Amino acid sequence: MTVASSARAQSPAAEAPKPDAGKPDAGKPGAKGLPASLAWKDPNAFIVHSNQTVETKRGHTGSGVITPVGRLFIRNNVNPPPDSIVADRDAWRVEIAGVASPRTLTLAELKRIGLASVATVLQCSGNGRKYMQDALQPGQTIPGTPWTVGAAGCVIWSGVPLKAVVDMLGGPAGGVKFVTGTGGEDLPAGLKPKDVIVERSVPISTLDTVLLAWEMNGEPLPLAHGGPLRMIVPGYSGVNNIKYVKTVALTEAETDAKIQAASYRMHGVGEKAAPTQPAIWEQPVRSWITGPLDGGAAGRTVVTGVAFGGMHAVARVEVSTDGGRSWTDAPLVGPDLGRYAWRHFALALDLPAGRHVLASRATDAAGHVQPEDTAPNGGGYSYNGWRGPAVRIETT
Amino acid sequence: MTVASSARAQSPAAEAPKPDAGKPDAGKPGAKGLPASLAWKDPNAFIVHSNQTVETKRGHTGSGVITPVGRLFIRNNVNPPPDSIVADRDAWRVEIAGVASPRTLTLAELKRIGLASVATVLQCSGNGRKYMQDALQPGQTIPGTPWTVGAAGCVIWSGVPLKAVVDMLGGPAGGVKFVTGTGGEDLPAGLKPKDVIVERSVPISTLDTVLLAWEMNGEPLPLAHGGPLRMIVPGYSGVNNIKYVKTVALTEAETDAKIQAASYRMHGVGEKAAPTQPAIWEQPVRSWITGPLDGGAAGRTVVTGVAFGGMHAVARVEVSTDGGRSWTDAPLVGPDLGRYAWRHFALALDLPAGRHVLASRATDAAGHVQPEDTAPNGGGYSYNGWRGPAVRIETT
């Protein structure tokens, strides 16, 4: 008998879905099956938190660098627009503002400006929140989906560099400090638009890397992942990558939309979010084990996992089989898809019979090392400890 | 009105399917739809030559480096084994011979030896045969499927390096000069096994790069592409990448199976194949245009395509819009997945109204330049000219 679980959660049941109550995107609380809109995905690959909140099971991202779209997580703040917006993809319109010659362009027009591809880790800002929720003191709460490691994948995006579009429209207007993207969701009736609109600002420094993407992994971008057009901000957490993007504006100030001003901020547990707090933008260095998740027979085993540096390449990964008492460097395997992609690692070793706690610890090219743990914050954002996602197994 | 076609074939109809008569794999000649076994693939992405011979339409490989499995070509020399062989993938057995300690290993056992990934161009040896067939003199024939550019894709494979398996089994036996893989097809009754078995030998120098792969693009390898286990020889043409591999032997001599001895050899048109002729192994440098395939409006356009060097990285790609009279260097775009992968290129330029012949010409890191054309050979193998796949468009 073997046990696969996080080092804190003692059984797989502890990773079972919880309702995501109180969110505009909450579907059937506790639903176990994929919603109809995601029926095209691999039904065995997911933990379903809600209709719009679907986590890839650990070990289901594959070993080939790129996460198959059919196994990639889903997280929406607002329900997606209707299918009709992908019926004629090339007709999709995006307004480009904050440039010398503002203009609305169709996707067909964007395709005639330029083409680039970039591989990025797409990760929900709250991936790993469960490890913070598990560490709270009595009376404390962190709202939000209890993601473990599966709100993340590595994707190749193809589209046009925003910089090429801005250059064609005469360059940035004076004084701009942010790139502000607005999603094309239909906003729920009865709510103030600014309270629900998906509109995010990121620093203007990203202008050199932002992509307006129409393909994911070589296929037309599915509606569920933001098709026909998504604004990709390499290295930045998921919420900054605006789905069905309808406006891209270079702006002097951050948007005052609630999702920017009063959400996705770094603040203490129990405190309110405020625009003065750091925004959830760049992702920190992180890694986790993807196998083995079951103990099986003692003997030679390959310990595998993924590691990424957010804004920086991965420089080193270490693996521990004794819960962090000792560490061994693990070889990176497979092609290197660039600084924003993840790397797989694989360490062949002999595991004697008994209990083992498998953990991984990554270091990025700028020297950032994954900490043992990440102190809980009010939103449960940016967890990057190595302790939380450690895996307990027993070999016989 | 615009016209998209090869520079030789004056209309799209010239690229329509032809029967693949006389081959053991021939399905319904002239069938237009995907066979039931491939119903999971994108029905709009293919030219169906036969039930086991399916070509990706030009421009349907996507722009994201990796070809989606649902759009990847199919070519089988013998009908695939039954679905039952992928019901319990880990139970698949492969015999490893020609080593100090020969042994049969299950896929589950292979997974505990090591893990690596490699991106390779998977390409039928006869990709581009149509351009040779079109250039024949009266009375000459080249048998085989009239592939244009679509018997190729770029795939990430994950599995165990053959070298790690061989090392674990005590290293190569003395005197070995080849790696010989045998496919697990059920052989048709009434034929001599050696006449139909898919068994290929490649030089022992490949021992450092061969992968025994169980994943394609991060997903369990589909039966149609050789699952549960395929022997991948990076840089070598498709036939050398043995599907459902059941034996991998390090051997002193090349196999005398017909597919090695009397097929896939470089010989003159009308001559018989013989073991003394060069085997079809390493792929030459090649590229082709993927867009635009329709003319549309004159003005700014992005000319795109793919380029690969076979055994070498791509060093340079040039694009012509005037059928090869003048050339402009085209930027490579997207992540570099290593020497065996293809690169996308994208050149933004202004196309005035009128007729244009778009061509691309690649140079590999060893200095090999794509020739204008490739002289026909008896098997229609290894076409790599830039003239054949050139695209004629008219802008207005």
UniProtKB/TrEMBL annotation, chains A, B:
MF GO annotations: heme binding; molybdenum ion binding; molybdopterin cofactor binding; sulfite oxidase activity
Keywords: Metal-binding, Molybdenum, Oxidoreductase
Compositional bias segments (type: Basic and acidic residues): 17-26
Name used for this protein in its record: Sulfite oxidase
UniProt-listed Gene3D superfamilies: 2.60.40.650, Oxidoreductase, molybdopterin-binding domain
Residues in Oxidoreductase molybdopterin-binding domain copies: 87-256
InterPro entries: Ig_E-set, MoCF_OxRdtse_dimer, Mopterin_OxRdtase_euk, OxRdtase_Mopterin-bd_dom, OxRdtase_Mopterin-bd_sf
One record GO biological process: sulfur compound metabolic process
UniProt KW Ion transport keyword: no
Highest taxon in the source lineage: Bacteria
Pfam annotation, one family: Mo-co_dimer
Disordered: annotated segments: 1-35, 365-388
Cofactor dependence: Mo-molybdopterin
CDD domains: SO_family_Moco_dimer (cd02110)
Ranges where the Moybdenum cofactor oxidoreductase dimerisation domain occurs: 279-386
